[in-house]
Structures are given as structure tokens and as C-alpha cells.
Design a protein that fits this description.
By secondary structure, this protein is mainly alpha-helical. It is 77% helix and 0% strand. The chain has 17 helices and no strands. The relative contact order is 0.15.
Length: 448
């Protein structure tokens, strides 16, 4: 989507901001529904949710391919693909956590997942640019649908290690409150460049609803009922810090992706292929560190890896601003993007490992949904915040707006670095990793 901003806006007679809203809504729908999606895996099974999510995503991709206007594109790309992703992503992390029992093997599994995710996220601009330039942006969505069909075919071999439990209740009220609250908060940020009071009103309303959500969760627990999220998830200090680092990582990654892509196309006038080629520098950096996740986990603590990742990312943004801001050369973008990709790839896997490994099998559905929701909330906030800064001034002072957006992203990375500094120096195996038959005592005590 990022490399097709100009093509989509011209074809559908919309604006850069219209495409930004479409991208942000897709990420927001994922963030809002990831927690319910993770919870549904307990009731209907991980494989069933995975396949149903894939099919829904494929339908959304085909609808986007034939969209006559922005409204249908939002329905297909933002809504259907967003809902489908919220259903298919949690099973991936749940299965990896259950299949691999120790920290090192999980690092290998999550490293492979992060690397493949990085390949998709970073190679996507190049593939999308090639398809858009050779055929049309619409064929890029057809390509997505074909990939989905292949994955559905291959997924028939997946074995679900835990049987579904149809008797499990589902907290509908909690799902609605959490989704609406998140949507209002991010929508408020999107409204920042149009109406300050509307922004404040939406953020306050969203925050209030999220507070009501947590009140509802506590009430259900006291009544002996099963809420959407267990409050046990928020009593583990290491997991909480890990979630903060995840949110910051994805906010920076998606924020940089949107800002750079928009600037290259709208201000510098690069086409989709040129924009995609430039992003291969970030791909190379991300792959280099993601594929080494298992080796890094054996030699360094999770905290060290996460902190190093943020430091390299911040340095990458600094290099990016220093070299690219005043240079017309396309190569000026490469060093900074490479360092950003290197830093993000270095810390993605240990952050996921810290969070997922903090809880046992009984809470994997919930923590996986929460973890992915926090990450996707970071993605949507990254596009919303950085995109809003850029779009607000892209016609008046593009260079200054571009620089300001990158500085804001660097500040977010500093917040993530501070959170990582408070993680334990040594990664302790969780009760799930040990043969201790009663891990709930550790969780109630707040120990990892």
C-alpha cells in the first residue's frame, strides 16, 4: 500500500490522506480485534481460526482489487483483511510457543517467524512496486489472494496440539469495549490535523471506554466468570515491559515505512519500483539480525538484545536524517534504512520471546492476542502519528514535516530503550519451561 499511494489516490480520485486512513484502519482493526481473535482460538481451535482468517483475508484482497472507490477499498482492505489477520496471527504465535518449550528453541522459532514477516513487510514494497508499474495496483491485491490460496492449501498439514473447548465462554461485552476504545483513541490521533477539539474528544472517549473495559474484566473475575483478558497478564513485570518494547518497535517500523514512502513519492517524485528498491536496504538489515536470533539468544540476554536493537535503530534514524535530508541521491537513503532494519530485526524476536514465555499453556491464547494487539496498535499509531505530521505539512514545508516525523519516531525509540533497561539482566526460565506442576503460583506472585 505504501508504494502505491500515488497510483491509488489518482485512480480512485482520493488523496494521500485517504490512502493513509485506509492503511491505518487496517492496522487498527487488527489491533482492536487481536485480543478477541486470540481468545477465540481456545473455543474453536487454532487451526480452524487460522484457516478461516486466511479465507476472510483472501476475500478482502479480491474485493480491494475491484474497488471502484475508496469506500469499497476500505471495506476490503481495512475491514475484511484486518479481521482476517486478527484471526490468523494469534494461532501462529500460540503454536510456536506450545511446540517449542525452551528459550533457545523459541528464539529460533520466533526468529524464523520474524524473519519471514520481515521479508514480507520489506519485500512487499518492491513486489508491489513491480506489479503496480508493470500492470496495475489492483493486480497487487490479486497477487495477495493467490498467496493466501497457497497458504490455505499448505495449512492442511497443521496439527493442533490442543483440542478446542466449545464450552468456553466468550466475553462479548469485553470484546466490544476493548475494540471501540482502541478505535476511538487512534481515530482521535488521525483527526489531529483537522480539528483539535475533535481529537481531544475522541481520545478522552476512547480512554474512558478502555477504563470501563478493565472495570468489566475485574467485575467478571470477582463473579467467578471468565473475562476477555485475565488480570494475571498485567501482574508480570517482565511481560509488561516486553509489551512496551513491542509497541515501540512496531510504531517506529511502520511510522518510518509510511513517512519515507510518502515523502519519496509525493515530494521526490519516485515511482513505485524506485520506492520499493530503496526499502530493500531495510530488508537486508532486518533479515541479517532476524535469522541470527537463535545464535544471539545463546550468547546474550534478552534485555541486552532489545536495548542494542533500540540503540542501533535510533542511530539509523540519525544517519537517515543526516544523509537523506539534503541529498538528491537515492543512495543517501540506504545507510539509515539499513541500520533501522538491523535494529528492528535484532529486538523483535527477544521481545516476543519475553512476553510469550512469561505465561503457561493456559494463558497462551490470551497473551498471544494481547501481544499481537499491542504490536498492531503500535503499527497503527506509527502510521497515524507520523503520517499525520507529514500530511499536515507536506504541501507547505515538506522537508521540515518529514524531519519532524522522523524525530518523533526516534523519541518513541528512546521510550522503548528506557523500558528495555528495566528488564531483568538475566532471562529466567518461566514455570512453563520447568517441570514444576503448579505454575499458577509463580504467576500469582508476579514472578516470570
Amino acid at each position: 500500500m505504501n508504494v502505491m499511494i500515488n497510483d491509488i489516490s489518482q485512480d480512485l480520485d482520493t488523496t494521500v490522506q485517504g490512502v493513509q486512513v485506509t492503511i491505518t484502519l487496517f492496522l487498527l482493526v487488527m489491533a482492536a480485534l487481536m485480543i478477541p481473535g486470540g481468545k477465540l482460538t481456545d473455543r474453536y481451535g487454532r487451526k480452524r481460526c487460522f484457516i478461516f482468517g486466511l479465507i476472510l483475508y483472501g476475500i478482502g484482497a479480491l474485493m480491494s482489487a475491484v474497488a471502484p472507490g475508496l469506500g469499497v477499498l476500505i471495506l476490503g482492505n481495512s475491514i475484511l483483511e484486518g479481521v482476517g489477520t486478527a484471526l490468523l496471527i494469534p494461532p501462529v504465535y500460540i503454536l510456536a510457543t506450545i511446540y517449542f518449550k525452551d528459550v533457545t528453541s523459541r528464539a529460533r522459532a520466533f526468529g524464523a517467524i520474524s524473519a519471514m514477516g520481515g521479508v514480507g513487510a520489506a519485500a512487499g514494497p518492491l513486489i508491489g512496486g513491480l506489479i503496480t508499474s508493470a500492470l496495475s495496483w489492483r493486480w497487487a491485491f490479486v497477487f495477495q489472494a493467490l498467496i493466501i490460496a497457497v497458504i490455505v492449501w499448505l495449512s492442511r498439514r497443521i496439527r493442533d496440539p490442543l483440542p478446542p473447548d466449545p464450552s468456553k465462554s466468550f466475553d462479548v461485552r469485553g470484546a466490544v469495549l476493548s475494540a471501540v476504545g482502541l478505535v476511538l483513541v487512534v481515530t482521535g490521533i488521525l483527526a489531529a490535523d483537522n480539528n483539535l477539539w475533535l481529537m481531544i474528544g475522541l481520545i478522552v472517549a476512547g480512554t474512558t471506554i478502555l477504563v470501563l473495559f478493565f472495570v468489566s474484566v475485574r467485575a467478571k473475575e470477582r463473579a467467578g466468570e471468565e473475562p476477555l483478558l485475565s488480570t494475571e497478564l498485567f501482574r508480570n513485570r517482565m511481560s509488561n515491559l516486553g509489551l512496551v518494547t513491542q509497541n515501540a518497535q512496531w510504531l517506529v517500523l511502520m511510522g518510518v515505512s509510511f513517512v519515507v514512502a510518502a515523502f519519496l513519492q509525493v515530494v521526490r517524485g519516485y515511482d513505485a519500483i524506485e520506492t520499493g528498491v530503496i526499502f530493500t536496504a531495510a530488508t537486508a538489515g532486518l533479515l541479517l539480525t532476524s535469522f541470527g536470533a537463535e545464535r544471539f539468544a545463546k550468547r546474550r540476554s534478552q534485555r541486552t538484545l532489545i536495548m542494542a536493537g533500540f540503540i542501533v535503530t535510533i542511530a539509523g534514524i540519525g544517519v537517515f536524517l543526516a544523509l537523506a535530508a539534503g541529498s538528491p541521491s537515492v543512495w543517501a537513503f540506504a545507510p539509515g534504512l539499513f541500520l533501522i532494519g538491523l535494529g528492528i530485526g535484532l529486538m523483535l524476536t527477544p521481545s516476543v520471546n519475553v512476553v510469550q514465555s512469561s505465561f503457561g499453556e493456559d494463558l497462551q491464547g490470551e497473551i498471544s492476542g494481547l501481544s499481537r494487539s499491542v504490536s498492531n496498535l503500535g503499527s497503527s499509531l506509527g502510521t497515524a502519528i507520523a503520517g499525520t505530521i507529514l500530511v499536515a505539512g507536506i504541501t507547505a514545508t515538506p522537508e521540515r514535516s518529514y524531519g519532524l516525523a522522523m524525530v518523533v519516531l526516534a523519541a518513541v525509540a528512546v521510550v522503548g530503550l528506557v523500558a528495555a533497561a528495566f528488564l531483568p539482566k538475566t532471562y529466567f526460565p518461566t514455570a512453563f519451561d520447568r517441570s514444576d506442576p503448579s505454575p499458577s503460583e509463580d504467576r500469582r506472585a508476579g514472578r516470570p
